[in-house]
User: Which sequence fits this backbone?
């Protein structure tokens, strides 16, 4: 798999634990997690401290194969290229008249039958109607011309990448590369042996033509002492880099947008296929007969070639007087993902055409993720492999990555057919838990680590919805800190709470999997069964609940199951800054009312005249601090009662007469609303207390551990009372 988070960093949070302090740190973190779980969930969680310690130790142990600079140096030492390593390519270069483009064209023609070519395209694509015509033309261009290295076309920038390796003006080799040159050089030598890169005497090349070079670099790779060699096409210290915004826009326009499938897309694929098989098989369909499977392409980016005339732009100077020139795809150039996305789209459509009703697949770059029935598994495996190899070459498939079963990891998530749930994959779970545990909350944290915490929070709250409000809090911690990743910042009291809570809930996800993993059913975009229509003034809210299955657009009173209007138990005066938050409180109380009426496991629709509150309700996110308490109530209620906001409708304020009137104290009789649907919220002490907990005034802001845990326990108690 092409790993998007491989970054050339010299330091890492993984290096914070040493043998001396590891056991002490684990004990302290374990005790802290135990305390937080008890604070948040009381004694009913039934988790022993030894279980928590085991999970933390596993996360720490998982970092033992994340090797650093010293490991790469120790493993490969001062590896030097063989003296004759450039002999083959030097002879070719001489025969090509000392012209890299000609040399490349000769090799590509010789290898064409083994790689993507027109004959392969014609054999594989027998039904052009299932493809975007533009993609077919793009694929043909990749086969006949190659990947085009597009550079800047902005008049304000250089129109061509300026050559950086000119005799007498060559930039220095990077210090990090020189430290780990043994590991990097070994990787480049392997690429050379596979005929995926040229190795030539640097002086010979510089004497005969101008080339654009990008620095050779290095990054960590889990489980690999040698790490990953990198080609840094974003380097702008010695000439114009290949990777620029203008170049990216040109590539996007030429090769099309990259649209990776999300975990939502993949789970919906499983649900759709299961429903289809149930319709076909009827009573013979059994969920336990479903299987999910995986496949991968081998060295995916290298399966494509560069346009021969562009190869002089893709070079890196190395030690031992050599230069690497890449004629096959390389990790580091901004265009490779756009070019490969064409292949991904074609393969996905062709494999789905071949397996027909026997299965479904989606591809994420080079990773194939599919679902089928046990009886169809051999067919799906066979057709997927044959399509890959027929199009890209006989060695395109990586059989060592083949997997199938009831539980697999898809794009960083654990997909469990047995429980019909989605969680975080074990490898990523360990990485994220260790990342949060490695934060020493009383000491300054680097921007680099803080950005990782934010990224994990944004990614995995799709599973752990209860943690969504903390994403905003964590992003707020790095606001205004600039781009220097080595800058440090002391976490705010609420930032520390975010770290504590993430640690605790991650542990609960592993130990109480069925309670915290996300069920399959929540991923489907089902038509909303109930609607929460709401409005607010600065003094109160108005809410109308409808059963949309009974709603008739021609009858405005149809489907109504509850109506309320209530004044806030707090005074906001006339301060308009509270308006959007008041609207959001209306949506939140509407959800709590549905829970009071016994509504569970349903998709809801929000309808209101505040675009901000509609967005907050759908995304579970918020801005600023005023709506923070209401957001926590909203999320906790949604999770506890399995209520999902599937749709939002904005209505112009001038048409929002009923809810507006209710929020300002008007009675149902005055507004023409059926009185028998009146919900006397003022007499419901639990709902009124929930409303009180949404108080947005600064003096009630959640600011630290004490105020957070007190608030959290109160809200959980009140929501439980709605049962």
Assistant:
């Amino acid at each position: 798999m092409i790993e998007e988070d491989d970054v050339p960093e010299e330091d890492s949070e993984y290096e914070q634990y040493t043998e001396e302090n590891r056991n002490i740190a684990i004990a302290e973190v374990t005790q802290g997690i135990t305390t937080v779980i008890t604070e948040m969930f009381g004694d009913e969680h039934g988790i022993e401290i030894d279980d928590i310690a085991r999970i933390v130790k596993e996360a720490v142990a998982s970092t033992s194969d994340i090797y650093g600079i010293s490991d790469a140096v120790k493993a490969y030492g001062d590896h030097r290229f063989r003296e004759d390593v450039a002999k083959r390519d030097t002879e070719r270069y001489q025969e090509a008249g000392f012209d890299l483009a000609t040399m490349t064209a000769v090799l590509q023609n010789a290898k064409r039958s083994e790689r993507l070519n027109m004959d392969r395209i014609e054999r594989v694509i027998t039904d052009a109607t299932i493809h975007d015509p533009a993609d077919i033309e793009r694929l043909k261009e990749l086969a006949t011309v190659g990947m085009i290295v597009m550079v800047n076309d902005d008049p304000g920038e250089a129109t061509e990448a300026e050559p950086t390796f000119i005799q007498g003006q060559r930039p220095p080799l990077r210090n990090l590369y020189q430290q780990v040159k043994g590991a990097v050089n070994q990787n480049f030598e392997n690429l050379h042996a596979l005929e995926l890169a040229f190795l030539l005497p640097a002086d010979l090349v510089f004497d005969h033509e101008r080339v654009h070079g990008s620095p050779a670099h290095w990054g960590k790779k889990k489980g690999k002492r040698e790490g990953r060699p990198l080609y840094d096409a974003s380097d702008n210290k010695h000439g114009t880099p290949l990777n620029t915004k203008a170049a990216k826009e040109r590539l996007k326009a030429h090769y099309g947008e990259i649209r990776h499938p999300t975990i939502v897309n993949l789970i919906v694929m499983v649900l759709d296929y299961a429903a289809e098989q149930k319709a076909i098989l009827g009573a013979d369909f059994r969920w336990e007969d479903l299987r999910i499977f995986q496949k991968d392409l081998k060295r995916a980016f290298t399966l494509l070639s560069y346009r021969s005339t562009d190869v002089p732009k893709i070079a890196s100077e190395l030690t031992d007087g050599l230069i690497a020139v890449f004629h096959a795809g390389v990790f580091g150039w901004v265009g490779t993902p756009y070019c490969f996305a064409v292949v991904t789209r074609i393969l996905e459509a062709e494999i789905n055409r071949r397996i027909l009703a026997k299965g479904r697949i989606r591809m994420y770059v080079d990773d194939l993720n599919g679902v089928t029935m046990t009886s169809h598994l051999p067919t799906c495996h066979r057709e997927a492999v044959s399509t890959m190899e027929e199009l890209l070459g006989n060695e395109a498939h990586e059989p060592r990555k083949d997997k199938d079963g009831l539980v697999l990891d898809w794009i960083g998530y654990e997909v469990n057919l047995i429980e019909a749930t989605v969680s975080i994959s074990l490898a990523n779970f360990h990485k994220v838990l260790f990342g949060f545990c490695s934060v020493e909350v009383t000491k300054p944290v680097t921007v680099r680590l803080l950005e990782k915490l934010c990224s994990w929070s944004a990614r995995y709250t799709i599973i752990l919805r209860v943690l969504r409000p903390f994403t905003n809090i964590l992003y707020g911690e790095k606001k205004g800190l600039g781009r220097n990743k080595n800058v440090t910042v002391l976490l705010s009291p609420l930032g520390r709470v975010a770290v504590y809570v993430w640690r605790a809930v991650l542990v609960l996800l592993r130990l109480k999997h069925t309670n915290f993993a996300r069920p399959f059913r929540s991923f489907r975009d089902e038509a909303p069964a109930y609607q929460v229509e709401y409005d607010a003034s600065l003094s109160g809210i108005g809410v109308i609940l409808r059963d949309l299955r009974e709603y008739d657009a021609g009858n405005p009173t149809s489907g109504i199951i509850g109506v309320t209007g209530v004044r806030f138990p707090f005074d906001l005066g006339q301060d308009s800054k509270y308006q959007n938050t008041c609207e959001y409180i209306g949506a939140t109380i509407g959800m709590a009312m549905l829970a009071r009426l016994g509504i569970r496991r349903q998709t809801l629709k929000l309808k209101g005249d505040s675009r901000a509150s509609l967005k907050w309700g759908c995304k579970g996110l918020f801005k600023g601090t005023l709506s923070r308490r209401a957001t926590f109530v909203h999320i906790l209620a949604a999770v506890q009662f399995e209520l999902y906001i599937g749709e939002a409708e904005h209505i112009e304020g001038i048409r929002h007469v009923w809810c507006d009137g209710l929020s300002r104290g008007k009675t149902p009789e005055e507004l023409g609303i059926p009185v028998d649907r009146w919900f006397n919220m003022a007499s419901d002490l639990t709902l009124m207390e929930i409303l009180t907990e949404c108080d947005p005034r600064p003096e009630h802001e959640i600011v630290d551990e004490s105020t957070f845990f007190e608030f959290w326990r109160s809200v959980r108690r009140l929501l439980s009372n709605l049962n």
